[in-house]
Amino acid sequence: MATIQIGENEQHPDLALVASARTGDVHAFETLVNKYDRQIFRIAQHITQNREDAQDVVQDAFLKAYEKLDQFQGNSKFYTWLVRIAVNESLMRLRKRRTGKMVSIDDDIETEEGSVPRDLADWSPNPEQNYGQAELADILRKTIQGLPHGFRIVFVLRDVDGLSTEETAETLGLSVPAVKSRLLRARLQLRERLSRYFRKKKAGEK
Amino acid sequence: MTCTEFLALLDELIDDDVSAQTRSMLQEHLNGCEHCEVTLSTTRKTIEIYRSHEVYELPNSVRQRLHDAIMARCKNGC
After folding, report:
1. Is the Cβ–Cβ distance between B34 and A27 less than 8 Å?
2. Cβ contacts of B40 within 8 Å, gap of 6 or more
3. In degrees rounded to 5, what are phi and psi of residue A123?
4. Is the pLDDT of residue A107 over 50?
5. Integer distance in angstroms from the first to the last C-alpha of chain A?
6. Whole-number Å distance between alpha carbons of A89 and A80
7. Is the pLDDT of residue A66 over 70?
8. Residues 6+ away with beta carbon under 8 Å from B23
9. Cβ separation of B11 and A184 shorter than 8 Å?
């Protein structure tokens, strides 16, 4: 219940903005758009893997949130509620691209690849500094794109966006143990894949 | 503690979500296991790199266009 949480950790500043937006103050809503559009774009891009779709998701997710503001209960953060809308919109876009094939957050996760570390070479100190910004971004993009999207989205919400395990579970409609198991495998798979680029070179290796 | 047991607690260790007793058991394993030490340090680094580098930038021009579109519809009551 929202009333119980308020005493513990003060009211989240978003709640006042949401309340104003509900009374028709579009500038209050604009503040929320400004605050979260980059994160929503990032999440949408990670799920859809398509720039145009991700841009459409940003637009549709905020518009849907605005339409449904009355349904926002205030017992979760506005941001997690918004992410939930954006995840659903992204999955819908993905489904359209795959010509109607059902897409859920449970797809493609049977793989056991990467649950056990294989590449055990240590990395060079600050390995990212061996690459230019654009090259590094390319490596990071390619590496994370190779993950099943059910892992990728858990990693992005939990580790990049900084949501808690419980918030990630709530947002994706997954159980807490499912989020934990996916997070571990996502982290290990990313580590394994990045190791190809970042491992210390042996003497004589190019 | 075996490597498999260590690995099962890797996330809790990274997220600093372990009791003092478990932490000292994990530390003891790390002291004698180079493989797990590398796994831990490189996994931490993986998270740090993804956290500190934006993989998908939203260009300002696109951002502005999206804002304008969103706000125009909101002002019209969607």
Report:
1. no
2. B10, B13, B14, B30
3. -95, 160
4. yes
5. 59
6. 14
7. yes
8. B13
9. yes
Residues 6+ apart with CB under 8 A from A192: A114, A117, A118, A119
- Find chain B residues with C-beta within 8 A of A144's C-beta: 50, 55
Residues β-bridged to residue A123: A199
Residue B49 has pLDDT above 70, yes or no: yes
pLDDT digits (tens, 9 = 90+) for B10-36: 999 999 999 999 999 999 999 999 999
Closest chain A residue to B64, measured at CA: A34
Phi, psi values for residue A73, rounded to 5°: -80, -25
Asked whether the beta carbons of residue A122 and residue B38 sit closer than 8 angstroms, the reply is yes
- Does the pTM exceed 0.80? yes
- Which residues, other chains included, contact A120 with Cβ-Cβ below 8 Å and sequence gap of 6+? B34, B35, B38, B39
Query: Quick check: B72 contacting A, CB < 8 Å?
Result: no
Q: Sort A188 into a burial class: Cβ within 10 Å, 0-12 / 13-18 / 19+.
A: buried
Report DSSP letters for A115-156, one per residue: SS----PPBPSSGGGGS-HHHHHHHHHHHHHTS-HHHHHHHI
pLDDT score of A117:
85
B61 touching chain A per CB within 8 A: no
Q: Chain A partners of B53 at a C-beta cutoff of 8 Å?
A: 128, 136-137, 140
Q: For residue B34, which residues of chain A lie inside 8 Å, CB to CB?
A: 120
A69-94 residue pLDDT tens: 999 988 889 999 999 999 999 999 98
What pLDDT does residue A6 have? 46
Q: Over 70: is that where the pLDDT of A105 sits?
A: no
